[in-house]
Amino acid sequence: MFIFVSSWGTLRPFHPKPIIMKKILILLVCSLVAFTSQAQTKADKLKNIRQLYAQAKDKVAQNGKTAPNKHQQLVLNNQFDEAPPFKEVVDIYFDEIRQFDNGDVPMSTESPYFMTRRYTCGDIDIYQEWLFDAKEPGKLLFAFECEQQNDGSKLESRYYWDANGLIEVKTNNPDADREGAFMQRYAGEYLSVFETIANRNWE
Question: For the range 160-163, what are the long-range contacts, defined as Cβ-Cβ under 8 Å and sequence gap of 24 or more?
Answer without folding.
Answer: 160/45, 160/46, 160/49, 162/45
